[in-house]
Amino acid sequence: MKTIAISRCARSVQAVLKRARRENVILRSPEDEEFILAEVDDFNREIELARQNRRLMKFLDARARQTKTVSLEEAKTLLGLTE
Question: Taking the complete model, does pTM exceed 0.90, yes or no?
């Protein structure tokens, strides 16, 4: 993730940020791409955004279907942690 500093002179961006402080904002580009602007401290919103991440959800679904487990002793052996 990239962090971009916004200048105080960028009035239109400052107006959008002011709105985003009150509620999450969807930004739509001229090409109809949509982006979400939300406060990072809003944990519930972060969860909502993560749930919209298709690659992440696909990965988590695949992990949830795995039934094979490894015992602690097997894990130690696999990681070379046994004496």
Answer: no
